[in-house]
């Protein structure tokens, strides 16, 4: 028989929720409201005057070829980071789950990179692949590969994708490993007895049971690629060369903090927020239909 828990003080539940509600209001809803309001005004760069222009900032942004380029860059960057980080994490999780001796050591070492700050992760990859002093860059050049991400946009994109995916692999690995350990071993053993090989067991039993975890990580990695990779791009390429790695969130920074175009920057923030909300809704509405919950 279940017992109903009753708080002795009716105000206590609200007091317990108050800190989280306050943080949400101050650090999410208030900045979002300010961004929407600012997007409807055109301000003087020094803050001396402000003029209401309605949707003119949005029209200016959407007609800007550089903004369209940033949108294309963001799509390529986000898809690449999500695919690389998820696939690599799943492979590592499957391999770590099969280890018997020293399993804890391997798992701990694979989780450690997540503790590295994005800017630090970017600097590590910059030091490794810098054409002037990078160890791996020198190896590539000695092998006859013309490596110079400071001038080649495709190489710069590959470098920031690698840095961003490397930073996120540990997070994905942790969830995939937990999902693998939650799968009943009896199912896999029964399939093996029936003659199913390792590949067939993985695609018909293991992977479908991992679909809730995969769906969750797909949403998380999409949001991560859109917002949390600013520090990596800023440290590695600064959006260059020739805007080849300038994502939407980095263009918001360039227009708002560097060029002091606050109205256009706010309009871009609102558009970016709408894009992420729309992607999340699409993922939950359509992608989740293929998720199998045990």
Spatial arrangement of strands, main beta sheet = 1-2
Shape field: globular
Q: Helix amount, in percent?
A: over 70%
Helices and strands, in order, run as HEEHHHHHHHHHHHH
Instruction: Return the structural class.
Output: mainly alpha
How many DSSP helices? 13
Strand segment tally: 2
Family: Belongs to the binding-protein-dependent transport system permease family.
Membrane topology: Multi-pass membrane protein
Keywords: Cell inner membrane, Cell membrane, Membrane, Transmembrane, Transmembrane helix, Transport
InterPro entries: MetI-like, MetI-like_sf, UgpAE/MalFG_permease
Describe what this molecule looks like in 3D.
- Its main location: membrane.
- This protein has helices at 12-38, 56-62, 65-98, 103-111, 118-129, 135-142, 153-182, 185-193, 198-209, 211-228, 230-236, 248-258, 262-285, and strands at residues 41-43, 50-52.
- With 294 residues, the chain is mainly α.
- Strands 1-2 form a two-stranded antiparallel sheet.
- A hairpin with a 6-residue loop joins strand 1 and strand 2.
- It is globular, with a radius of gyration of 24 Å.
- It starts with 11 loop residues before the first helix and ends in a 9-residue tail after the last helix.
- The mean pLDDT is 85.
């Amino acid at each position: 028989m279940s017992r109903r828990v009753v708080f002795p003080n009716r105000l206590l539940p609200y007091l317990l929720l108050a800190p989280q509600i306050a943080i949400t209001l101050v650090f999410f809803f208030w900045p979002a409201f300010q961004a929407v309001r600012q997007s409807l005004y055109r301000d003087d760069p020094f803050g001396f005057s402000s003029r209401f222009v309605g949707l003119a900032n949005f029209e200016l942004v959407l007609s800007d070829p550089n903004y369209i380029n940033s949108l294309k860059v963001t799509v390529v960057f986000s898809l690449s980071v999500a695919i690389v980080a998820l696939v690599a994490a799943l492979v590592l999780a499957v391999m770590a789950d099969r280890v018997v001796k020293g399993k804890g050591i391997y798992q701990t070492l694979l989780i450690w990179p997540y503790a590295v700050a994005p800017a630090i992760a970017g600097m590590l990859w910059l030091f490794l692949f810098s054409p002037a002093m990078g160890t791996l860059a020198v190896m590539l050049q000695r092998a006859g590969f013309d490596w110079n991400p400071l001038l080649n946009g495709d190489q710069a994109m590959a470098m920031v994708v690698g840095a961003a995916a490397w930073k996120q692999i540990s997070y994905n690995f942790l969830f995939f490993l937990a999902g693998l350990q939650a799968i009943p071993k009896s199912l896999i053993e029964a399939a093996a007895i029936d003659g199913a090989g390792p590949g067939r067991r993985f695609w018909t039993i293991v992977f479908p049971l991992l679909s809730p975890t995969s769906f969750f990580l797909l949403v998380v990695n999409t949001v991560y690629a859109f917002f949390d990779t600013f520090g990596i791009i800023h440290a590695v390429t600064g959006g260059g060369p020739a805007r080849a790695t300038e994502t939407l969130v980095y263009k918001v920074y360039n227009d708002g903090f560097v060029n002091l175009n606050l109205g256009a920057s706010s309009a871009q923030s609102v558009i970016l927020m709408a894009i992420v909300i729309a992607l999340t809704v699409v993922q939950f509405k359509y992608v989740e239909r293929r998720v199998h919950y045990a």
